[in-house]
Amino acid sequence: MTSPGLLLASSSPYRKRLLDQLGLPFETASPNIDESPLQGERPDALAVRLATQKAQALAPEHPGKLIIGSDQVAALPDGTLLSKPGSHERALEQLSRSSGKSVHFLTGLAVLDPRTGALEHCCETFIAHFRDLTREEISNYLHREQPYDCAGSFKMEGLGITLFKGLEGRDPNSLIGLPLIALNEILIRLGNNPLLHPEP
Length: 200
Known about the structure:
This protein has helices at 13-20, 43-58, 88-98, 135-145, 173-176, 180-189, and strands spanning 5-9, 26-29, 65-75, 81-82, 102-113, 118-130, 164-168. It is an alpha/beta fold. Strands 1, 2, 3, 4, 5, 6 and 7 form a 7-stranded mixed sheet that branches.
């Protein structure tokens, strides 16, 4: 069986830039799924379920592709979920609640081969330890970077690094939205080793 092409089940420019790093040719498509959490669903289970559903949603239209789904859930220590804020006011509230706390970012990853039905999935945890932030710092950060489409209200790859006193986890890419170390491991198992693939 020949190695299938890759399809990233996401319209996120952040995930696209991350996947570009592996040097493998791929296409993108945006899945349409309901991202609402189920009653009592754990954040890690939610992240994996949504990543899996994203991949599965595109399988009928792309039966010959290896489909990569990913979804990130951010949770405060009390279990409160932090979604994409969508506005300055909600982002200000989120970062104010995160100030001085350790926020868990759980990134679900699913890789589906529709040809065989084979599915691999995992959840990568990355912990962001926030500094004690003043309201002025938070407001200035938001005005400068406007991370309103980012879970947790910051951009790790930009000025968001100034919000933290420490970061904990094996793959900082998972904080941006696509755990490349875990993805690389899965791709190797499925016969798509980026280092053994001809350059695109």
